[in-house]
């Protein structure tokens, strides 16, 4: 036979709790559990009603006070209402880097990788003809050719979107001429001319292809490939 548990009424629990003196050790604002839940629910209902009333009254107050009641969380100097796109752009340009300094940084950033490309081509072509480049000799060539490369980079830098078609046309012609010249020298010239001319021609060729848009770059490379085919240059890659 199972154990029968006696259910103690809530009134008896309340009487035993009062006799034990436990209520005397509780805070003065403590209320029993069930009445406390009801009290909290009632308080929350009143609070929600008051909040809804205040929300309904806010538009009239805000219409009189202008923008004082708006929440400006996350607002910055560019998020002012009524500001035009042109004004935002002018503010950004005013607060940005000086245009001359930015242009100088662009030239340096573009010159560095292609300066190292020139150095790489020069070392590789010397190794091809069993020459042994020296550190001093390579630094002398870099000091003589990198300023010229930097000037070429500066001339071909886009000026804030202006003259883009003319610049692309110029780079397109430079890519064709430098590519054909590079491959012609490699195939037809003697080793001294190859060592002297291929590093700058190769650097200019790669630079022009990188700066061209995709379609004119592909057309330029196709024209160079056609020149190699019809000029009958003895290049292994085209004899496969």
Give a structural overview:
This protein is mostly helical and 240 residues long. It has 2 domains: 10-54; 100-238, no CATH class. Helices cover 70% and strands 0% of the residues. It is built from 8 helices and no strands. It is elongated and about 115 Å long. 11% of the residues are buried. Mean pLDDT is 77; it is low at 61-70 and 77-82.
Task: Describe the secondary-structure layout.
Elements (H helix, E strand, L loop, with lengths): L9 H11 L12 H33 L19 H11 L3 H30 L6 H21 L8 H25 L2 H21 L2 H17 L10
Helix pairs in contact: 4-5, 4-7, 6-7, 6-8, 7-8
> What is the string of helix and strand elements?
HHHHHHHH
Count of helical regions: 8
The residue-averaged pLDDT reads 77
- The poorly predicted ranges are 61-70, 77-82
Tags for this entry?
8 helices, about 240 residues, 2 domains, mainly alpha, single chain
Summary, kept brief:
This protein is an all-alpha fold. 70% of the residues lie in helices and 0% in strands. It is built from 8 helices and no strands.
């Amino acid at each position: 036979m199972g154990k029968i548990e006696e259910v103690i009424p809530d009134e008896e629990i309340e009487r035993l709790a009062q006799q034990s003196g436990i209520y005397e050790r509780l805070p003065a604002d403590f209320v029993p559990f069930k009445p406390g839940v009801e009290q909290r629910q009632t308080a929350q209902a009143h609070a929600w009603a008051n909040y809804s009333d205040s929300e309904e009254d806010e538009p009239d107050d805000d219409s009189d006070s202008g923008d004082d009641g708006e929440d400006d969380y996350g607002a910055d100097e560019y998020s002012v209402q009524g500001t035009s796109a042109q004004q935002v752009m002018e503010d950004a340009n005013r607060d940005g880097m000086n245009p001359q300094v930015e242009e100088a940084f662009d030239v340096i950033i573009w010159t560095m990788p292609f300066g190292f490309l020139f150095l790489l081509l020069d070392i590789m072509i010397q190794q091809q003809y069993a020459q042994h480049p020296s550190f001093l000799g390579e630094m002398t060539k870099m000091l003589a050719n990198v300023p010229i490369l930097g000037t070429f980079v500066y001339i071909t830098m886009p000026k804030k979107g202006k003259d883009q078609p003319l610049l692309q046309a110029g780079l397109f012609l430079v890519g064709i001429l430098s590519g054909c010249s590079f491959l012609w020298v490699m195939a037809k010239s003697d080793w001294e001319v190859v060592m002297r001319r291929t590093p700058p021609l190769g650097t200019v060729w790669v630079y022009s292809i990188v700066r061209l848009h995709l379609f004119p770059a592909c057309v330029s490379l196709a024209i160079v490939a056609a020149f190699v085919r019809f000029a009958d240059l003895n290049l292994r890659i085209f004899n496969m």
